[in-house]
Specification:
about 170 residues, mainly alpha, Zincin-like, 2 domains, three-stranded mixed β-sheet, about 65% helix
């Protein structure tokens, strides 16, 4: 998982402009370092600020954190930024990515089985598999489950409180 996270992170860094604003980079780095400092982990975290208007952030296995500059337009202070980064780090710490990969493999195996059992051929087969594949992506692979989101919310609030940020600020943000 760490290797997959590192590969995805490098690809994002090649495809998305990285911010060259030293103040923004220091700000995000400071918040992220305080959060990762309360997590027991043997891997150093790398933080990149992407110059993109998307109001988003992510954390990947292997200790990679990305924050888009558009998120800084939404968060009003360091506490709110910590809420988002803490939530994303929590997904990694709770191994939610591992569950998503397992679901992906199970989904692919299921789609292959359906293909074999239906015996559909040609255009009919392509349409069936396309519809099943789309349904699997939307319903299984793309979103974290509600229980994973709730767990990441709780863990993220815990991380931010332990790091000295005010979890109450997350209410105004969310």
């Amino acid at each position: 998982m760490a290797e997959m996270g590192q590969t995805a992170y490098q690809e994002l860094k090649q495809q998305t402009p990285v911010s060259d604003d030293p103040g923004v980079k220091r700000y995000v780095q400071c918040v992220a370092q305080n959060l990762t400092g309360v997590i027991e982990r043997d891997t150093a975290w790398e933080v990149t600020v992407f110059d993109d208007k998307a109001a988003n952030a992510f954390a990947l296995p292997g200790g990679k954190i990305g924050v888009y500059t558009g998120l800084l337009d939404i968060t009003e202070n360091q506490h709110q930024l910590a809420a988002v980064i803490g939530h994303e780090i929590a997904h990694v710490q709770a191994n939610h990515s591992n569950a998503r990969i397992s679901n992906a493999y199970a989904t692919q195996a299921g789609l292959t089985l359906v293909q074999l059992l239906t015996g559909a051929t040609g255009a009919e087969k392509q349409q069936l598999m396309g519809l099943l594949g789309l349904g699997a992506q939307v319903g299984v692979l793309l979103p974290y489950g509600r229980s994973q989101e709730s767990e990441a919310d709780t863990l993220g609030l815990n991380y931010m409180a332990r790091a000295g940020f005010d979890p109450r600020e997350s209410i105004a943000l969310w």
